[in-house]
Structures are given as structure tokens and as C-alpha cells.
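Request:
You are asked to prepare a plain-text protein record giving the amino acid sequence and the C-alpha cells, at your earliest convenience.
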Amino acid sequence: MVDKRPGKIVPAAESKSNKSILFIVLGVVAVLLAVKVFLDYREKQELQAYYETEMETAKAKLDEINEELQLKIYEIDSLGGDISDLLEAQEQITQERDQLQRTRKANRQLIGKLRRKTDGYEELLREKDKEIKKLLEVNEVLNAENTDLKVDKNKLNKSIVELNEDKVELEEKVEVASRLKAEKIQVVAVSKSGKERTGVLKNRQLDKLKVSFKISENEVAPLEAKEIMIRVIDENDQVIFDVNRGSGSFIIDGKETFYTASQDILFDNSGQDLTFIYEKGSEYDPGTYKMEVFTDGYLMGAVSFSVK
């Protein structure tokens, strides 16, 4: 059986009213969203501005703490206290200040870290104030005692100065006495066939230069590794050297000079014999040469020889 009753007809005025209400609700929602976006943006900007202000405040605080650290360093050091931790803190502040200079945008994590750092530095300064107070008390006691001991102190200082002078003089004597000496120095020409000749050396027989000597025994000298160097010097006071053949440089009286050849040895105070073989690779100019032996910047011995 079919229901032939007519459907419900909505009046036109009511339909229009419902649409108006819907538009109003959507408009209110849009306005609220816009307001929220604006408020969130403004809050973000205000928060960022707050972070930037806090970072600038932290920079100024670090500069202030650094100045106070410098004063504490000077004061504690003048009182004879330990300043190592203050120097370390000062270096850290300098690094952190430089890092802040390179930081373009602050954030909550950075601000929190800076606050913890500055709190720690301020606590260090408070502890150092206590230390300075104790050092001042100790120094007052010492100054009072020193007043009664001035005469004895002056006498003691004079004795110390004299002892130091004697010590320096003794050390100088020991240093001179401990210097090694080269003795029985011989300069020999070695021909291509291996035959050795002494006296006036002739270029045609001088394929290699052989230098041999004995290191004198020395009970004062320490048993240690030594670098022994020889210098062959011509009539024009020029050292014969070739870095490709083992030559190099060392310091004499604060000045760099060349050596012809060198050897590393362990000085054992046994009267060691030492031999150098130097191949120049070209003829020697005729004339008189000097052959010097050095170690540790001082001359061990020298001889002259002639080439023709």
C-alpha cells in the first residue's frame, strides 16, 4: 500500500535563516583563527625579542664577570694564592663570549645554558672572595712576624745571594769541566784505491777525507747521547758542506752555522775513537784548511791541514 501523503515543505524564510546562521558561524570561526594566528605570531616575536634581550644581558654579564675575574687574579696572585682555576674560567668566558658573537638567533636552550654558566662563575667569585679574605689574614700574620725578623731576614737574604752566586759559579765551572775534548785529531787523504796519506794532501790522491780522533775521558761529563759534528773550513772562512752528503746546520753563540758532517754517539767515558769519512765530490782548492770538532754548541778541538 503506497503512502500518498505529501512531503514536508520547509518554508523559504526558514531556509534562508539557516544559511545566514551558517555564514555567521563560519565567519566567527575564521575571525577567531585569524586572531589566534596573529596572537601566536606576536607571542613568538615577543618571545624571540625576550631571548635576544636575555642574550645581550648575558653578554654584558660575562664581560662584567670577566673584569671581576681579572681583579681576583691580580689580587690572589699578589697574595701568593693559586690562580689556575681563575685563569681556566677566564679562558672559558672568552671562548663563550666569542661564540655568542657568532650566534645569530637566541633560543630557550641557549638562554638556560648561559644562566647556568653565569651562576657558576658568580659562585666561583664568591668562593674566591672567601679565599682572598683568608689570604689577607695569613699575610697580616706573616707581616707581623716579618717585622720582628727583618734583621735576620736581611742577613739570610745576603747569605742566600752569596750561596746563589757560589752555586752559579760552581755550575759554570762544572759546565766547563764537563765539556768533552777531542784529542789526537788526524786528517787523512783516502785515494780511490783506499790508500791513506797524511801530511800535505794532494788533490789527485784525495778522493775522500778521513777525520779520526779520540774523545778524552771525563769523569764530570754525564753519560748520554751526543751529536758530534765536524767543520772543514777553507782559507776564505767558508764551511765545506753539502746537504745531500749529510751536511746540516747548528747553533754557535746564538748564530746558525753549517757543519760538514755529523754522527750520533752514546758517550760512555771510555775514551771512544771516532772516524768520519767525507766525500766532497769535487777537488779541494789549494790552501790551508781548518778542521773543527763540535758538540752541544762548543768546540771540542781543531787542527789545520794543507791541500795542494
Remarks:
- The chain has three domains: 18-145, 152-177, 182-307.
- The mean pLDDT is 81.
- DSSP finds four helices and ten strands in the chain.
- The beta strands are 182-190, 196-197, 208-215, 225-233, 248-252, 255-259, 261-266, 273-278, 287-295, 298-307.
